[in-house]
Fold:
Amino acid sequence: MESIKQQLNSAVSEAMAVISGSSDCNANVVTASKPEFGDYQANGVMAIAKQLRTNPRALAQQVVEHLEAAALSPIDRLEVAGPGFINIHLADSYLLSEANSALQNPSQFIGTSDSPQKIAVDYSSPNLAKEMHVGHLRGTIIGDCLVRVLEKLGHEVVRQNHVGDWGTQFGMLITHLRELESDQAELGTQLEDLEVFYREAKERFDNDAEFATASRLAVVKLQSGDPEYVAAWEQFIDESLKHCEAVYKKLAVTLSRDDLDAESRYNDDLSLIISDLESKDLLTESDGARCVFLDQFKGKDGDLLPLIVQKSDGGYLYSTTDLAAVRLRMAENIHRSLYVVDARQSLHFQQVFAVALEAGFADDSLSLEHIAYGTIMGSDGRPFKTRSGDSVKLEDLLDEAVKRAHDLVSEKNPALTADEKTRVAQSVGIGAVKYADLSKNRTSDYVFDWNTMLSFEGNTAPYMLYAYARIRSILRKAPEVTAFAVSGVAETKERALLLKNLQLPEVVSAVAQDCFPNQLCNYLYELAGLFMRFYEVCPVLKAEDTTILQSRLALSQLTAQTLQQGLDLLGIETLEKM
Structure:
């Protein structure tokens, strides 16, 4: 199902193709920047005119005349502007029809894709040797937003939580774990804080030669499938996953154990990756390690940069596992593979993708995309840490957010019951953390600031949740409506609000394509602002005419519905009252 923008782009592109005789035409329809430029603007005529070496305004006029002859129902009028832009004004009758269709069928408002794909989204990816910390926040919630958006559009989404559950560090953890197994009560207490457990094991590994030897032996026994060591490993993994699941539950993230894509899954395939690279003459030995050098990757000194796939001691690396994962995704007929991973891994993924293509592990039928994101910074301009310099546990940060939200809600609305305050605090606190992140351009770093994210002013979750709750309050006070229907948009603010509501599907499509959730946040913020301005100048509950009252209530209902759908795609729960 096409959005308004897609419908217009198709119609104008077809007209351009007929007039120009060129099959390769893109109308490049965009949302108009100002009302005087119409509702949308087609900017693609100039490019075709340049190819044909003809006057762009004259070509644009021919396109307009062709469209006018077709008398398309969405379009009220067209006009040529500037060097060859086409301003598109939509018909009010069309807008009303689309709005009422959305009110009658809310679940179908965001249509599904005409070309659904199978898309793998690799996100969150905690290291199971430790608890999740603030560095995992962005990858987890950006990835979850993307899978929500993609599924809403009808794509088959394969969630993949590529957890680190294999390797040398697990030898020391298993050894430490086995020594505690005789005291189950002590073991449970120890595993309640994985960070402490990890530090104790690491300290013993660094300072106790006997323990270090036992740890290395544990790795060998684990990798050879020794039942006792595998059982200890499984117990530690199970406890680690419980910590992750607690965080996912608080964040309302849709990952489950069924979505695990553990490194251990690829263990048997890693030697095959090396032999396949060798058979394709792609391997070079460098300082004992086996590497792939490709001409497009060079350092500042001009030397080729290696992708190391096997260490000098025979061990494998993330690059080897990632190559195995790419090959598996090809075998599973994945169309797009999105890696929601820190921007600091950009070179790594560029090299992995290039090597995968060079080695034939993937081809052009699989789009490999690194969805990079920046770092959460503290007020000192450095990566966000505790005062002692440790990583901030994600669970602790979320608990603090809920506590601060509870204090804020209790101050602003003391009349709420204790249960209501708890629920509002949960939604506002978690929503504030998620929205503060998702509303930023994902490629940029941002400063973590409690005061900003919990503010009821500006582009924040509290403001958005309040806007929704306020509309719901208006609707509760209104006379009962049997069926919502917008019957007119005589006022400028009414029409602007109606059009903005109808643009949600195109924004969602853009997020699916470009993977920038802040586009959706910006849209919702603009929508909420338009409602506030509409409500100031267009009486709703005090409208004297019953028809106008009913129509404006319907427009309010549509806005609430749009806000709720948009916030749900961000993974944020709305509130009926605050």
